[in-house]
């Protein structure tokens, strides 16, 4: 996909920013050095569960790229927390891989966070109503809150290569109305996360405001 230019220059939009193999090795190395036992169980499980799945976009990037990116982003922001990184690696397994949270090879606290991060449609209510309940529930759980913000930040960072203008507009609207309040929960309810929340909000806001010019 070529980028729009007004000055005689064209760019190729890239779906992949980093190597899945290097990210995997990075997470594994940190986990081994920090004795992050839950992460060491979650990593191979996530790889196995997402095998054969691909991300949206022209390049067909393996889906595991996304949870690895979320985990690496968390580590880069200083979240060298076993339960949090394991949750990041597993956050899409229940929603996308046909498994139950009770089947995950990790502790109960991580299972609960992954379940909260799993959006389930309810035929008795509108999508907007279901989403509000979803985000309200996430906001009550520290692990789910942080991972959801990391997850959305990564998805926003890659949507220019895979979303239609209509889908981007919907995603931006949902982010501003439902995810940004979660960032504030992360910032003020968990003071140790203040700096990371600031950086994540800055990144998301910068991308959103840039993309608004194209949708």
Runs in which pLDDT lies below 50 for 5 or more consecutive residues are none
- Net shape: globular
Our estimate of the beta-strand percent is: under 5%
Provide the succession of SSEs: HHHHHHHHHH
Q: What structural class should be given to the helix and strand makeup?
A: mainly alpha
Helix count from the secondary structure assignment: 10
Alpha-carbon distance between the termini?
16 Å
Helix content: 55-70%
Rg from alpha-carbon coordinates: 17 Å
DSSP E strands, number: 0
**Average pLDDT figure:** 92
The biggest sheet amounts to:
none
What does this entry show, briefly?
With 215 residues, the chain is mainly α. It contains ten helices and no strands.
Write structural notes for this entry.
This protein has 215 residues and is an all-alpha fold. The protein contains 10 helices and no strands. The chain has helices spanning 20-33, 37-49, 65-76, 82-90, 93-97, 108-116, 127-138, 142-158, 165-189, 194-211. The mean pLDDT is 92.
What's the arrangement of secondary structure elements?
Blueprint: H1 20-33, H2 37-49, H3 65-76, H4 82-90, H5 93-97, H6 108-116, H7 127-138, H8 142-158, H9 165-189, H10 194-211
Descriptive labels:
globular; mainly alpha; 215 residues
């Amino acid at each position: 996909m070529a980028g729009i230019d007004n000055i005689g220059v064209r760019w190729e939009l890239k779906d992949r920013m980093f190597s899945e193999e290097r990210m995997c090795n990075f997470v594994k190395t940190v986990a081994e050095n920090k004795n992050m036992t839950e992460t060491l169980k979650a990593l191979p499980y996530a790889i196995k569960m997402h095998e054969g799945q691909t991300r949206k976009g022209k390049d067909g990037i393996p889906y595991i790229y996304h949870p690895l990116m979320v985990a690496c982003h968390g580590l880069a922001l200083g979240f060298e927390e076993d339960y949090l990184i394991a949750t990041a690696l597993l956050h899409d397994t229940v929603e996308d891989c046909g498994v139950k949270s009770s089947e995950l090879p990790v502790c109960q606290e991580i299972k609960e966070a992954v379940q909260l991060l799993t959006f389930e449609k309810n035929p008795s209510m509108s999508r907007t109503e279901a989403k509000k309940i979803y985000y309200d529930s996430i906001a009550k759980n520290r692990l789910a809150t942080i991972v959801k913000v990391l997850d959305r930040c990564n998805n926003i960072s890659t949507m220019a290569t895979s979303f239609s203008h209509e889908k981007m507009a919907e995603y931006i609207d949902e982010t501003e109305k439902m995810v940004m309040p979660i960032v504030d929960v992360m910032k003020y309810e968990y003071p140790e996360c203040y700096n990371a929340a600031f950086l994540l909000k800055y990144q998301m806001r910068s991308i959103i405001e840039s993309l608004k010019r194209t949708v």
